[in-house]
Amino acid sequence: MRARVRGFTLIELVVTVAIVGLLAAMAAPLLETTVRRGKEQDLKAALMDLRNAIDAYKDAADRARIQRAADDSGYPPSLEVLVEGVVDRSSPTAARMYFLRRIPRDPLADPSLGPAQTWGLRSSTSPPDSPQPGKDVFDVRSLSQGKALDGSLYRDW
Fold it and tell me: With CB atoms counted within 10 Å of each terminal CB, which end of the chain scores lower, N or C?
């Protein structure tokens, strides 16, 4: 009697590879959505950090802890000032106040741009429906033209 050889037939292998390929094709959009959701969460966190730093700078200016001219709005002149810091007028040693450790990047922006260039700036004299940069930074927004998973525009966040 001849011993029976055990193994997979060609048909079984083809079916197995087809099933694995089908499962991988179904998982790819889910992975893409997960990556996109992560970038959206990073964008929200970066916007919150920047806006909190701008508000802290404005609060310090309103409390006269920062030197400013009479016609200044009290908002920072640039995002870089939030990192570089300003002299605290209430400190006897002229210590510096810092509002950010670093300028966060817009996760949806071109990676070749510097962190400060990834944001759209709005000055305090700019209308909300047509944000324009100016002599101060009142607010920041994403420059991305894309839509979020919820259908809103990133630039409107």
Answer: N
pLDDT digits (tens, 9 = 90+) for 52-69: 999 999 999 999 999 888
Number of neighbours of residue 81 by Cβ within 10 angstroms: 19
Give the residue extent of every domain in the chain: 10-156
The whole-angstrom distance between residue 56's C-alpha and the CA centroid of its chain comes to 19
In this structure, what are the phi and psi dihedrals at residue 122, rounded to the nearest 5 degrees?
-125, 130
What pLDDT does residue 28 have?
Answer: 84
The DSSP bridge pattern shows strands 119-122 and 139-142 to be antiparallel
